[in-house]
Amino acid sequence: MRCYLQAFLLCMVFIFFSLVYVFNQLASTLEDRDGWGLKEQGIPGGRSHDDGHLLRKRPGLAGRDHEEGLDRERSNSPGKHHGDERSHVAVVACGTRLEETLTMLKSAVLLSKKPLHFYIFAEDDLHEPFKNALDSWPRTAQTKFNFTIYPITFPEENAKEWKKLFKPCASQRLFLPLILKEVDSLLYVDTDIIFLQPVEDIWALLSQFDSSHLAAMAPEHEEPRIGWYNRFARHPYYGKTGINSGVMLMNMTRLREKSFKNDMTTVPLKWEEILMPLLQKYKLNITWGDQDLLNIIFHHNPESLYVFPCQWNYRPDHCIYGSNCQQADQEGVFILHGNRGVYHNDKQPAFRAVYEAIQKYPFGENMETSLLQPLEASLLTTTNSYCGRASHLFTKKLKQSILSVQQEVTQRR
Questions:
Q1: For residues 150 and 172, what is the distance between their CA atoms, to the nearest angstrom?
Q2: Which of 34, 135, 194, 392 is deepest in the core (most CB within 10 A)?
Q3: What distance in Å separates the CA atoms of residue 200 and residue 78, rounded to the nearest whole number?
Q4: 29 neighbors 277 (Cβ within 8 angstroms)
Q5: What is the DSSP letter of 188?
Q6: Which residues of the chain carry a pLDDT beneath 70?
Q7: Does residue 306 sit in helix, strand or coil?
Q8: Those residues with Cβ within 8 angstroms of residue 149's Cβ, 6 or more apart along the chain or in another chain
Q9: Is the CB of residue 48 less than 8 Å from the CB of residue 72?
């Protein structure tokens, strides 16, 4: 009987200290929410046509310009102003990702018919290069988009830990709903994304959200036999094979408002409350950083996620072992995701060919003869690889997009 009593007491002590730890983490998170750099927002103005703004965070209180900037952003936020046709696109760039990011932005501008607003989060030494490059684009391109450049911002007490999670700055995407407080909806994309059809087409998926959906992503794998999460993950993940966060569509108003179920406490937690405790609990068990944290969150809140098909986030995994994205087989690839550096090495020449075709295309030239035809010729040389054999899927939607844009240009003349 004494042994049972001792075991009971040990269990009670363990439970007590576990509860103390959890509530300590939550209290720390709540303090961080008020103390970190998010309230140091600069002027979220952006560049309209031919003039640019670089947004830099400054300590202390912002003045009237700051307030006017927020008012201007608020009036143009999707879902808050019916006249706004813009698609709002965010990207995070660190290190050597300048040229790759510019190529992604270029693909969006070339193929989109409706206006765009780019939110570019970058290290300080990349701000001027981004501004100079985008300002150098021809007037015909500049009229299609605005941009705002932001510094990389993490909670002050844990900035180093967040910045080094998985890849430099990648976890910045987790804090976009807390930084861009006046933006209702947002499309986040990795730097290694190439749009093969207009951005407004994926933006339109927001209208397919039901009342519980607050984000949309594609599955990490279509084929469980080659899936990573279902074979190797040491943490909860969404669905059968997990989700990939390289293309992430968000209703950020809902995201900020929702209380999320979790496995740390019986109390649902807000977005700003859940991130740090989640990292502390799982940091020794996660491999893919912020993507793993998103998998954990939506594992416990599956009703909140809208899953879009794999052709919206087509990666080498969809063709490297033979084609396994049925939707792309039928309709073509909509968004190409060249993860694992395949745009910059010889492992997947078909992916690299698409990237280089967009990168080298001169603005103002006929896209059919100066982009599509050279790309098709280049892809014919890649058929010795599985992805090369599926490369006709890369140009199927791109061809339609180019013809549609050129037809509109012809009608305006």
A1: 11
A2: 194
A3: 12
A4: yes
A5: E
A6: 1-83, 166, 413
A7: strand
A8: 53, 54, 55, 120, 121, 122, 127, 130, 131
A9: no
290, 188 Cβ separation under 8 angstroms = no
CA-angle at 70, arms to 64 and 74, nearest 5°: 145
The pLDDT of residue 4 is 60
Amino acid identity at 354: V
For residues 73 and 44, what is the distance between their CA atoms, to the nearest angstrom?
Answer: 7
Taking only the tens place, the pLDDT of each residue in 254-279 is: 999 999 999 999 999 999 999 999 99
What letter would DSSP give residue 260?
B
The values of phi and psi at residue 348, to 5°, are: -130, 80
Q: Which residues contact 131 (CB under 8 A, 6 or more apart)?
A: 47, 52, 54, 149
Closest CA to 177 of 72, 101, 249, 125: 249
pLDDT given at position 371:
98
pTM, two decimals, is 0.83
- Do you know the residue count of the chain? 413
Measured CA to CA, the distance from residue 391 to residue 379 in angstroms comes to 7
Distance from the Cα of residue 282 to its chain's centroid: 22
Residue 2's pLDDT is: 57
Longest CA–CA span in the chain (Å) reads 92
DSSP 303-342: GGEEEPPGGGSB-GGGTBTB---HHHHHH--SEEE-TTTT
